Amino acid sequence: MEIAKQAVCGTLQSNDCFIRLYPHDDGIDLDIKSSVMAQFGKQIEKVARETLAEMGVTSCRLFLEDKGALDYTIRARVETAVKRANE
């Protein structure tokens, strides 16, 4: 699945994350910013990549700004951004 247009989802409030998703021609490009990057950065990236793969996204640029979101929140935000990008 290709990302058709830019989309955003989420907030910068505590326990949430803000997603910006852009079309991109060269695979998956992730940019993750988190206050807990040292402890949970690999898990945040894993959840984002798995969600994109499950939705069939093969190329996009995803900026994820995390404020302590749990896995299910990250998954929901990525899914919503992908759906908005392909409306």
From TrEMBL:
It is found in: Cytoplasm. Keywords: Cytoplasm, Lyase, Phosphoprotein. Pfam families: ACP (PF06857). GO terms for molecular function: lyase activity. InterPro entries: CitD, Mal_deCO2ase/Cit_lyase_ACP. Its main location: cytoplasm. The keyword Nucleotide-binding does not apply. This is Citrate lyase subunit gamma (Acyl carrier protein).
